[in-house]
Each structure stands twice: as C-alpha cells, then as structure tokens.
Design a protein that fits this description.
single chain; Beta-Lactamase; globular; WH_DNA-bd_sf; 9 helices; Tscrpt_reg_IclR_C; alpha+beta; 3-stranded antiparallel sheet; 21% strand; Arc Repressor Mutant, subunit A
Length: 270
C-alpha cells in the first residue's frame, strides 16, 4: 500500500488513513457482539472487501481480533487487555460501584454511573435491568450529546453558568428526537428546573420511548462530580417517576456523604 496515498492532511496535521480504517474495523467488531464478518464490515464501513480482509488479517496477526468458525470475527486478547487497562484508569471507585449495584437492585431497571474524565461528563459504568432496556448508543466512555442526557444535565445544572456556556454555547445542539432541546437559552432554563426539583429528566430526548432520571453527587466543596441515572420505558414512567426519583437522589446522597467524609476521593470538574 502506498504510504503517500495513505496519508491525508487536515487542520490538525497528517493522518494515516489505514490506521483510521483499522480502528473503525476494530470498533465495529467490538460493537457487533461476535457476529461480524468481512462482508458485513465491508458494507457497514464502506470499505472495499479486499481492503477489509487486509485490515482483518493485520488485526488478527497483532492479537487485537480473532477469527472464529464460519468467518466470524471477535475482539482478541490484546484488545481485551487494552479495555481492562482503560477501565482501571477511568472506571469508578469500588464504593461508587456498590452504590450503583444497590440502585440497580432497588429499581430493577437499567442504571448508569457517570463521572468526570478529561473535563467531560463520561459514562463510567452501567448495569442492565431485568427488562433489558438499554439504549444501544450508550456504552462505557460515551461523552456525546450532553444536552439530551439526564446524566449530564444533572451535573451541568450545578456548575457555574460560565462553565456551562464555555462547554455548550455555540455548539450545535442536535435534535436526536422531536423532544430534544436544541436552543441554548431554553437549555439553561431546563438546568434551572433540574436544580429546583433535585434531579434531571430525559423525556425521550435522547432516544424515543426511553425516559431517564438522574441525580448528581458532590465533593466536599459542593461541586458536582458525577451522577446516578435510572432508565425506564416511557410506558412505565408515570407510575414509577416518584419512586425512581427518590432512589436516584438517595444514591447521589450516599455518594456525596462518602466524598464529604473523605472515604473516597475523585477528581472534580475543575
């Protein structure tokens, strides 16, 4: 493969196109849950089948991908090891994981834990509920669409207004559903509602048919450092709203107590 043709210039410098495509293939395999084939990957990513096979052979040889019976590809040992290293660095403390498990056991719904990573509210851990409701786009490390997610609104509501403005003002707020707030001024009003009620809501703003409730937790200085979220189908929301709101707020309160008493220490938004 020609190294010159493999490079492209951007405003951030020279990028290697082959590396970029190889990472796309690896990500697609990780998301396929053991059902990826070369033909599927080629079609999904818009990569020529010959190029796709070349990338797959390279990833297999490096140990990032394994080829299974029937021409199916899955994540290999080196990719799994990389994932474990990243989780150890960015994952929540054991104490917060215990609180998330408690929330999961009490709600029997899908629950999420978010915290700060590199200055951005980031999904750190989740547990799937008995009813198997989980939004496909959300996974550990997800940082997108803060304006549409209860977990992020719960945190942003308690940050200084100027910090929220720096993070979001002037950034297009994409309409993911007809309910998504896409105006920054309207979004600031929504954050005031979050502070008033003590928890955030995502009323089918991120994904149709799904409602989320989220409560923040705080460090010793009063700054928000994360949030606990419960996700529920819209059909069950009305009857469960009050109880779920109390449960996510209880989880946030427990985490806040641990932080303020020094039993756990995690980085803040600063």
């Amino acid at each position: 493969m020609n190294d010159v043709n493999d490079e492209r210039e951007t405003d951030r410098g020279t990028l290697l196109h082959t590396l970029d495509r190889g990472l796309q293939v690896l990500e697609a395999i990780a998301a396929s849950e053991g059902e990826a084939t070369a033909k599927v990957l080629s079609r999904q990513l818009g990569i020529k089948i010959g190029t796709c096979y070349h990338l797959l052979r390279t990833l297999v040889a490096a140990g990032y991908v394994v080829r299974l019976t029937g021409g199916v590809y899955d994540v290999g040992p080196r990719a799994a090891s990389l994932s474990r290293h990243l989780q150890r660095r960015s994952g929540p403390s054991p104490e917060l994981s215990v609180i998330l498990t408690r929330l999961h056991n009490k709600t029997q719904e899908t629950v999420y834990l978010s915290g700060w990573q590199h200055g951005t509210p980031t999904l750190q851990h989740y547990l799937t509920g008995e009813h198997a409701l989980r939004v496909g786009a959300l996974d550990v490390g997800y940082v997108g669409n803060m304006h549409a997610r209860a977990s992020c609104k719960a945190i942003l509501a308690y940050l200084p207004e100027e910090q929220v403005a720096v993070m979001l003002k002037g950034v297009p707020l994409e309409a993911l559903t007809p309910n998504t707030i896409t105006d920054f001024d309207e979004f600031t009003v929504e954050l005031a509602r979050v502070r008033s009620r003590g928890y955030a809501l995502d009323l089918e703003e991120f994904s149709p048919g799904v409602v989320c409730l989220s409560a923040a937790f705080f460090d010793g200085s009063g700054l928000p450092v994360g949030s606990f979220t419960a996700s529920v189908p819209v059909t069950r929301f009305t009857e469960r709203q009050a109880r779920l709101a109390a449960q996510v707020r209880e989880a946030g309160s427990m985490a806040t107590t641990l932080l303020r008493t020094g039993r756990i220490v995690i980085p803040s938004a600063g």
